[in-house]
Amino acid sequence: MELWIPITIFAAFCQNLRSALQKHLKGALGTTGATFIRFGYGFPFALIYVTGLHVVGGYELPHINGQFILAAAFGGLAQIVATFLLVHLFSYRNFTVGTAYSKTEPVQAALFGLILLGESVTPAAAVAIAVGVLGVVMISLAKTPSNLRELGAALIGKPALIGLASAAFFGASAASYRVASLALGGPGFLMQAAFSLACVTLFQTVVMALWMAWREPTQLVASLRHWRISVWVGLAGVAGSAGWFTAMTLQQVAYVRALAQIELVFTLAVSWFVFREKINRAELAGCLLIVGAILLLLLGR
């Protein structure tokens, strides 16, 4: 098995955990505060990871260059905007369709990978990505009203546009992170990914802290007050991000983000086995489509 595959699955699991914690905190912190804790509380763990690779693992620290700085900064800003939009979706009563659209990220990541890196995917991979996105959309829409008029209105409403924009910024950030990591040119994929993650997280923390101090100081204070659970958000977030950065250093963004759709399978499994929630036919069908898409993606390689 190629190494990027288990790393991506691990990252998807961590992201699922982080999202659950982040959604829990949104009521106490608001959109900006819930977005900030992902980066602000994640940076110390990212720094510990780099230090461990350097001191214990014996990896040399990479040399920073202009391409790395530009790609890391652009990716960092894009991820801030994408995370803010995604968290903001939960403010809408009919956020389900928007969330479904936000899951079109693998398609948009493939486009940005083509634009920024000149990377294309095989026909089998393109089909797998499309099938996986269809499965995710089915799961996301499974519990929406069956009234076609309401569904049609939701498909072009404000939450839908926010979801599409969130996916676009997530796709752009993922491709930019691969550019940044590869721009370092060594001393090994683990250190390249870890160093990129630490630099990006530091940049995001500074940018958001300055913005909040200027525009929303109460949100900044609230994020510090709720540090006990925010620390766990930061840990889960940086563990997932370390997985994403490492996987995207090893493999094209389109493949990594397509496999990452397994996160929805994790979510349904937890709902079913842990919380004993019922899963309807549309959710089950969507889950099967995602699994089929992942198998097609991996077998096609």
UniProtKB/TrEMBL annotation:
Entry keywords, A to Z: Membrane, Transmembrane, Transmembrane helix
SUPFAM superfamilies documented for this protein: Multidrug resistance efflux transporter EmrE
Cellular component aspect of the GO annotation: membrane
Domain of life: Bacteria
InterPro entries: EamA_dom, EmrE-like
Transmembrane segments: 35-56, 68-90, 110-139, 151-177, 189-214, 226-247, 253-275, 282-300
Ranges where the EamA domain occurs: 4-140, 161-298
Protein known as: DMT family transporter
